[in-house]
């Protein structure tokens, strides 16, 4: 019995170290992706000097919103790194930023009303889930006790 507990503790420790190492590599990769996104955004600023100002702004807007979505992924990874768990609100925030990036791109395209209605329903349902996750989070339950 005692020997099994020691083996379980060693396996748990190995798992935690492995996860932290891989997560550290992931965080470095995310930071590099953010840097690359910023570089691409600055490179796309040259499009403003061209004839298609509308297309240039659309490209820059999508670039910036994509970088912000990657920042939300970084926030989720850092939360797992520090707290040892992933917060549902961070995941929902990441999905909301990504979906809103697509919504911003819709402004520059012709879309069927059914697709727009589906995106609106998705955003509203994600917002509702986020409100519920904040309202009934384990942390607020612990604070009430």
Automatic annotation (TrEMBL):
It is a multi-pass membrane protein. InterPro entries: P_starv_induced_PsiE-like. Keywords: Cell membrane, Membrane, Transmembrane, Transmembrane helix. The keyword Cell cycle does not apply. Pfam families: PsiE. The chain crosses the membrane at residues 21-40, 60-81, 88-107, 113-133. It is found in: Cell membrane. The keyword Transmembrane applies. This is Phosphate-starvation-inducible PsiE family protein. It comes from Geobacter benzoatilyticus.
């Amino acid at each position: 019995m005692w020997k099994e507990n020691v083996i379980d503790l060693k396996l748990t420790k190995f798992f935690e170290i492995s996860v932290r190492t891989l997560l550290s590599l992931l965080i470095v990769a995310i930071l590099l992706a953010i840097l690359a996104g910023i570089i691409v955004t600055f490179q796309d600023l040259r499009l403003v000097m061209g004839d298609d100002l509308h297309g240039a702004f659309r490209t820059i807007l999508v670039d910036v919103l994509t970088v912000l979505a990657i920042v939300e992924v970084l926030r989720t990874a850092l939360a797992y790194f520090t707290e040892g768990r992933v917060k549902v609100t961070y995941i929902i925030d990441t999905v909301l930023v990504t979906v809103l990036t697509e919504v911003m791109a819709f402004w520059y395209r012709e879309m069927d009303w059914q697709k727009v209605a589906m995106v609106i329903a998705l955003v509203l349902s994600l917002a509702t889930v986020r409100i519920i996750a904040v309202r009934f989070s384990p942390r607020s339950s612990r604070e009430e006790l």
